[in-house]
C-alpha cells in the first residue's frame, strides 16, 4: 500500500475507534430524539397584547385545561404497547 494512503487509513481507523469508545454503551450515552423516542413536542405562545395586567395574571394556568381538552378530548393516553390509560 502507498505510504501516503496507509497513514490516512490508520487515521480513519483511530478516529472511528475513538468515536466508538465515546458512545459505548449507546443506551447510556445516546438519547433518542422525539421522532425516534415516540412522542411529540408542542409549544404554545400566548398572545397577551391588548390585555391589562390583571387579565394576564394566571392566564397560562387558566389555559392549560382548555389546551389539554383540545389536544386530548377523550382524556385517554394510548401507549406504544397498545394499553390505554385514562386520566382522572
What does this entry look like structurally?
The protein is mainly alpha-helical. The protein folds into two domains: 1-30; 36-88, no CATH class. It is built from five helices and two strands, in the order αααααββ. The protein has a two-stranded antiparallel sheet. β1 (76-78) and β2 form a beta hairpin. It is elongated.
Overall average residue pLDDT: 79
Q: Structural class of the helix and strand makeup?
A: mainly alpha
The share of residues in helices is 40-55%
| C-alpha termini separation | 70 Å
Radius of gyration: 25 Å
Q: Write down the secondary-structure element order.
A: HHHHHEE
The low-confidence runs, each spanning 5 or more residues with pLDDT under 50, are none
Strand content: 5-15%
Number of strands: 2
State the major sheet. Answer: 2 strands, antiparallel
How many discrete structural domains? 2
Number of helices: 5
Shape: elongated
Looking across the biggest beta sheet, what order are the strands in? 1-2
How are the SSEs placed, and which strands pair?
Elements: H1 3-22, H2 26-29, H3 34-37, H4 53-56, H5 59-71, E1 76-78, E2 84-86
Antiparallel strand pairs: 1-2
Brief characterization of the structure:
With 88 residues, the protein is mainly α.
Amino acid at each position: 500500500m502507498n505510504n501516503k494512503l496507509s497513514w490516512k487509513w490508520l487515521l480513519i481507523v483511530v478516529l472511528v475507534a475513538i468515536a466508538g469508545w465515546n458512545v459505548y454503551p449507546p443506551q447510556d450515552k445516546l438519547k433518542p430524539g422525539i421522532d425516534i423516542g415516540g412522542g411529540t413536542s408542542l409549544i404554545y405562545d400566548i398572545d397577551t397584547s391588548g390585555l391589562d395586567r390583571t387579565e394576564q395574571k394566571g392566564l397560562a394556568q387558566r389555559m392549560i385545561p382548555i389546551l389539554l381538552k383540545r389536544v386530548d378530548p377523550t382524556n385517554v393516553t394510548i401507549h406504544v404497547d397498545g394499553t390505554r390509560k385514562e386520566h382522572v
